[in-house]
């Protein structure tokens, strides 16, 4: 198996800077809580945060999907955020949207906490695979239906530290 490059390091950096500018403008330089979805979104969230000059508060959430005997994998929290988000600006930061299950669940969960604004930002989107009705507010790249690795994304916990997005073939 060889690793092929889908999005190189330079294109990632440039696109993340563009997203940062867009977010900063949309939020009028107000403080934003980044809810980074572990583990995959860590590289993206920190890179994005570094390109924003207004105040960013980092928080983390870990969701596990256990498939059990059913194919409709149920989600559970392995780690919840550590602060009250009521009346705060919140952006959920995700590495990739696939079926949309994770984010449609998380969006409902956070909406109930009455944030001032709630947005979704994903580095990658595999639109073809969508099964749940969820649309991100900010997307880095739309990608074809390939299993990708790198820049936080893993295959069996490996390859997260690749500085680019690749796929195995
Ligand atoms: P969803 O709930 O089906 O949208 O799945 C989203 C999660 O599946 C992501 O947060 C990733 O952890 C994982 N995932 C989906 N596609 C890929 C991929 O191509 N590479 C690595 N992880 C992926
Ligand atoms: Mg993930």
Q: Can you give a write-up of this model?
A:
This protein has 169 residues and is of the alpha/beta class. It has a single domain (9-143), classed as Rossmann fold. The protein is 22% helix and 34% strand. The chain contains 3 helices and 9 strands; from the N terminus they run E-H-E-H-E-E-E-H-E-E-E-E. It has helices at residues 9-26, 42-50, 101-111, and strands at 3-7, 32-38, 56-66, 74-79, 89-97, 117-125, 138-142, 148-149, 165-168. The strands form 2 sheets. The chain has a 6-stranded mixed beta sheet, sandwiched between helices. It has a 3-stranded antiparallel beta sheet with strand order 1-9-8, with helices on one face. The longest helix is centred in the N-terminal third of the chain and has 18 residues, at 9-26. The radius of gyration is 16 Å and the shape is globular. Bound molecules: inosinic acid and magnesium ion (MG). Magnesium ion (MG) is lined by residues 37, 40, 95.
